[in-house]
Design goal:
The protein is mainly α and about 240 residues long. It has helices spanning about 5, 10-20, 30-35, 40-45, 50-80, 80-95, 100-105, 110-120, 125-145, 150-180, 185-195, 195-240. The protein is about 80% helix and about 0% strand.
């Protein structure tokens, strides 16, 4: 069986059979065709899109929702409570309680805490070495924050193209039916309408993915800015006279 047969879109005559109406192919009754189209349900339109087009987009939708929620929660955890945490670390360092400072960092599950824990473990070494250690940990934490976000960008670009591909295949079938059967355009209007469903679905998925990608990137940039400012404050604290 060819790919085009898999995608076979219900023609207007098929739709009218399900709705209990009959449209004569030679009558060209446009008003009856329009009335029939009004009875097409959303599920009929989705099902007509072709399983090999709609199923991948359904999978991409699930992936998009999962990544969006999982990354949003991870980013919120990464940026919580940094101000009070840094003040406590500063107090411990000034008092010389490095073990207490490291214990506090180890018990705090944030990128900033892991960066400062590495910096505290290097206290006593040249400031350049401490800065390099913090920077290396920061790069690892940024990579963790950005994990999976690029998939949203991929979905934002791929979903509309996949949807358009489904529409093109559907339109090829519709015009092939016109050529071989000699039916009127009014009878094929239902099939043409349904052929557009994949493009609509792809555009909706692409727009949502694009919005979520940029929203998450913006939140990640805020966390990165906090990480940078905290590391600078920490290094300034170590560089104070008497430290």
């Amino acid at each position: 069986m060819s790919v085009i047969n898999f995608f076979k879109i219900p023609l207007l005559s098929q739709i009218t059979e399900e709705s209990g109406q009959t449209i004569n192919a030679s009558s060209g009754n446009t008003e009856a065709a329009i009335n029939t189209l009004k009875e097409v349900t959303l599920w009929d339109m989705i099902a007509s899109g072709g399983w090999y087009i709609m199923v991948p987009m359904g999978i991409m939708s699930v992936i998009m929702v999962y990544i969006s929620i999982e990354r949003l929660l991870a980013i919120q955890r990464a940026g919580k409570g940094e101000q009070g945490f840094l003040m406590q670390i500063r107090s411990y360092i000034i008092e010389g309680k490095l073990d207490s400072a490291r214990t506090l960092c180890a018990s705090t599950d944030t990128p900033i805490a892991r960066m400062l824990e590495k910096g505290i473990s290097k206290i006593g070494k040249p400031l350049k070495d401490i800065e390099a250690s913090i920077e290396n940990i920061g790069k690892i934490e940024i990579y963790k924050l950005e994990k999976g976000v690029s998939v949203l960008a991929t979905i934002a670009g791929a979903a509309p193209m996949i949807g358009f591909l489904g529409t093109v295949i559907g339109m090829i079938f519709v015009f092939q039916e016109m050529r071989t059967s000699g039916v009127a355009i009014e009878q094929l209007s239902g099939g043409i309408m349904m052929a557009m469903v994949t493009t609509v679905a792809g555009l909706i998925l692409g727009v949502i993915s694009y919005i979520m990608y940029n929203w998450l990137v913006g939140k990640i940039q805020k966390v990165i800015a906090k990480m940078e400012s905290t590391s600078i404050e920490f290094l300034d604290l170590l560089d104070e006279p008497g430290k």
